[in-house]
Design brief:
mainly alpha; about 5% strand; two-stranded antiparallel ribbon; 3-stranded antiparallel sheet
């Protein structure tokens, strides 16, 4: 199994980074590269370090890490929205998108260091200031909800692009005119599995408005601004990782620990309801009554005060952890649950990996081992698919998907201790 997973990463390697999928996602994606590095650390420390450092070469002067770093060797129209749409070019000529993705990078860097501490201190020295700048951007530019949590300004920033949690805030957005853009995702994946044309038009309009205001977070009249529990939980985990990195480097870890503690308190106070974390619509101030896997991801937060209640929700009828394949991305009892459409019901390997990590942190070894075993079986049997039906395990999306392969390598390593 590990050999096959390594083969996937080799086939998707470009020489300095790993594409998620040669056809559907032919560039470098932000949180994909973090997950990929977590797997690569078991194969090649150098490759894992290069994966993260190549991404950080696309970091903006304001500290943001864009969600896509475009490869100049790929045709400009191979993916939409491509570089001509985003119009974001760094001083060295690197072209990127203008939005971000969940901040799991510091955790990936810390795990990479732990795989071989003797060969990674220099890596931490190089990467630590960039990660501090990244978190500083989020803290300083994106906390406009009034409660200290970071807000996303586009559904794509959540990493869970088509989540039902975005339906209510997206309803405010007038879509880009029909015929003003050409989708490329449906060239490589079944239309029934992908976002609708209406939603895609709204995504395009949001991105265009942000672009046309110079990607200014305070200047843009955001029609979509949401405090997402997954995004903030991963920021908390990465702040804890930065504290560990700071100690190794002889820096003061306490600012990272204080920020992680403040975020944890705000996360629980602002987003926890009915046994799960829900997204908050910043513009209306209301919690969004859609229960998604994003609301379970705070299981990874160290010392989470409501962890027992959250675990009970994961085991309950909304997600049925241990009874379904991996972890469904949406409430199984919701009338609009869809087992095949992108983030509206299918199970994903990266969220299963995060929940497995949370279960380990809670010493829930029985549930963790069952989830790990299911993950490894399904990854191989589905050809390292992007996501799958939580009941039938029917694969969906791209095959030979890089984070599925990388996280397979990581979970396989548990067998070796």
């Amino acid at each position: 199994m590990t050999d096959n997973a390594v083969r996937v990463l080799e086939e998707n390697w470009t020489g300095h980074s790993t594409v998620p999928s040669r056809a559907l996602y032919p560039h470098q994606w932000s949180w994909d590269s973090a997950f990929i590095a977590i797997g690569l650390r078991h194969v090649s420390i150098g490759r894992a370090q290069t994966e993260l450092e190549s991404l950080l070469r696309a970091q903006w002067p304001d500290g943001r890490i864009p969600h896509i770093a475009f490869a100049p060797s790929v045709p400009r129209d191979a993916y939409f929205p491509g570089p001509d749409f985003w119009q974001a070019r760094l001083a060295d000529g690197t072209e990127t998108s203008g939005i971000v993705q969940p901040p799991i990078h510091a955790l990936a860097a810390w795990l990479t260091y732990q795989a071989d501490p003797s060969d990674s201190v220099g890596f931490l020295e190089r990467i630590y200031p960039r990660l501090v700048a990244w978190h500083g951007y989020l803290r300083d530019r994106r906390t406009f909800g009034g409660g200290g949590l970071v807000a996303i300004v586009h559904p794509w920033e959540s990493g869970m692009d088509n989540s039902p949690a975005w339906d209510l805030p997206l309803a405010r957005v007038s879509p880009a005119p029909a015929g003003s853009f050409t989708r490329r995702d449906t060239d490589h994946a079944a239309g029934a599995d992908r976002p609708t044309d209406l939603d895609y038009g709204r995504y395009v309009q949001l991105a265009a408005t942000y672009r046309d205001h110079g990607y200014g977070d305070r200047e843009t009249p955001h029609a979509f601004a949401v405090e997402d529990p997954c995004f903030n939980a991963l920021l908390i985990s990465s702040e804890h990782a930065l504290a560990e990195i700071a100690e190794v480097l002889g820096r003061d870890p306490e600012p990272h620990r204080r920020y992680a503690a403040a975020l944890t308190e705000a996360l629980v106070e602002r987003l926890f309801e009915d046994g799960i974390f829900r997204s908050r619509d910043v513009l209306s101030g209301d919690l969004i009554p859609s229960d998604t896997v994003a609301g379970l991801i705070p299981l990874v937060v160290p010392g989470l005060p409501v962890a027992d209640e959250l675990l009970a929700t994961a085991l309950g009828p909304r997600f049925r952890l241990g009874e379904t394949r991996l972890v469904p991305s949406y409430d199984l009892t919701a009338p609009d649950f869809d087992p095949g459409r992108y983030w509206r019901g299918p199970s994903w390997f990266n969220t299963a990996w995060l929940i497995h990590r949370g279960l380990i942190n809670l010493n829930q070894t029985g549930y963790a081992e069952a989830l790990r075993a299911d993950f490894l079986t399904l990854a191989e049997s589905t050809g390292y698919t992007e996501y799958l039906n939580p009941f039938t395990a029917t694969p969906h999306g791209a095959q030979n998907f890089s984070w599925t392969a990388a996280l397979t390598i990581d979970l396989k390593s548990y067998e070796r201790g």
